[in-house]
Amino acid sequence: MSEQDPERDERHRQRMLRKKTVVDEKIAVAQQERGVLLVLTGNGKGKSSSGFGMAARALGHGLRIGIVQFIKGAKSTGEESFFRRFPDEVRYHVMGAGFTWETQDRQDDMAKAQAAWAVAVELMRDPDVALVLLDELNIALKYGYLQLEQVIADIQARPPAQHVVITGRGAPTALLEVADTVTEMGMVKHAFKAGIKAQKGIEF
Amino acid sequence: MSEQDPERDERHRQRMLRKKTVVDEKIAVAQQERGVLLVLTGNGKGKSSSGFGMAARALGHGLRIGIVQFIKGAKSTGEESFFRRFPDEVRYHVMGAGFTWETQDRQDDMAKAQAAWAVAVELMRDPDVALVLLDELNIALKYGYLQLEQVIADIQARPPAQHVVITGRGAPTALLEVADTVTEMGMVKHAFKAGIKAQKGIEF
């Protein structure tokens, strides 16, 4: 692999130099610093885990974070056991119910979603919280357990430097419109469809 | 929001019951347990953070993990400071160079990528390591710093229960073919393009 090829090395150097110019120009333009709203949606694997990865990053910078898990909650997860280890830096709230098709009780689901939203609003009123992760919020919105207009208004009223990360399939259009960053995670392949169980560390 | 609507509640209950049947059937079919190969690619935000989120999940289950960061490495990141706090559970290796357009030195990049790959192979030979995250490996493959056939052979020779997560844009087709789960992260919107700086806890 370490073959000597001075011409190729030189072409690489030129190409990378041009790339560096382009990248540096883009960086020079992007100078605004403020809290961003990120939405991670789509059917592919990686939405919640990406939110938890940003939570880990923020902790690495000594920031304080808040996590609210909507919908999930009946069974314990790796993310919950892990992030609960840092009670001084992480405020963690899990909505007390399983996936909605487990409960089949709309009134109870709604009451729990609204209680979870009240915790989210509290986190979004605290300027000491640098990042708020609203995991699977999109599912609660999709089932109409929360009012979208109120949810958006509450998010927009947060402290200017605070980041909010929202995950879950089927993010509503109005939420995408007010978001700064939106990723649509497309499922190209999923092990589950090939008969492989959801596994520790990967899916939960 | 908590409006009483018994008919709607009943329709919800029926719909969720049907959904539960479908979900339960899928779960019953997916009973195989083994290490999976996940590839997170595409241009959207969330690939590396998703890998780090799975690392956090695995730690929550008391598992041991290995992380190798290819390409990145010139500047310190939140993920590195954070995961280095757990030296007994996490083996962390950062390839010693910035993004390749910063170095513009193909020979040096190749030597460093190969040294990083040697660390990855060591992790993939250790059955005590439950999950190996190969962050931005796709970039090293894209530039031809590593031989794809060898990389795939090394991954396939890992312990049967070990999970491998690979991130980075432009994953090669041959890698997607051998992967169990593939997510293509599509960029719908990115704050950076709207003039917002890469920020702590979000991008690094």
TrEMBL record, chains A, B:
Protein source organism: Halopseudomonas sabulinigri
Pfam families attached to this UniProt entry: Co_AT_N, CobA_CobO_BtuR
GO molecular function: ATP binding; corrinoid adenosyltransferase activity
Taxonomy, superkingdom: Bacteria
Keywords: ATP-binding, Cobalamin biosynthesis, Cytoplasm, Nucleotide-binding, Porphyrin biosynthesis, Transferase
InterPro entries: CblAdoTrfase_CobA, Co_AT_N_dom, P-loop_NTPase
UniProt keyword Lipoprotein, yes or no: no
EC annotation from Swiss-Prot or TrEMBL: 2.5.1.17
Localization in the cell: Cytoplasm
Family: Belongs to the Cob(I)alamin adenosyltransferase family.
Annotated pathway: Cofactor biosynthesis; adenosylcobalamin biosynthesis; adenosylcobalamin from cob(II)yrinate a,c-diamide: step 2/7
Database matches in CDD domains: CobA_ACA
Catalytic activity: 2 cob(II)yrinate a,c diamide + reduced [electron-transfer flavoprotein] + 2 ATP = 2 adenosylcob(III)yrinate a,c-diamide + 2 triphosphate + oxidized [electron-transfer flavoprotein] + 3 H(+); 2 cob(II)alamin + reduced [electron-transfer flavoprotein] + 2 ATP = 2 adenosylcob(III)alamin + 2 triphosphate + oxidized [electron-transfer flavoprotein] + 3 H(+)
Residue ranges occupied by any Cob(I)alamin adenosyltransferase N-terminal domain in the UniProt entry: 1-27
GO cellular component terms attached to this protein's record: cytoplasm
Keyword Transmembrane helix part of the UniProt annotation: no
Protein name: Corrinoid adenosyltransferase
Segments traversing the membrane: none
Functional summary from the UniProt entry: Required for both de novo synthesis of the corrin ring for the assimilation of exogenous corrinoids. Participates in the adenosylation of a variety of incomplete and complete corrinoids.
GO terms (BP aspect): cobalamin biosynthetic process; porphyrin-containing compound biosynthetic process
Lineage: Bacteria, Pseudomonadati, Pseudomonadota, Gammaproteobacteria, Pseudomonadales
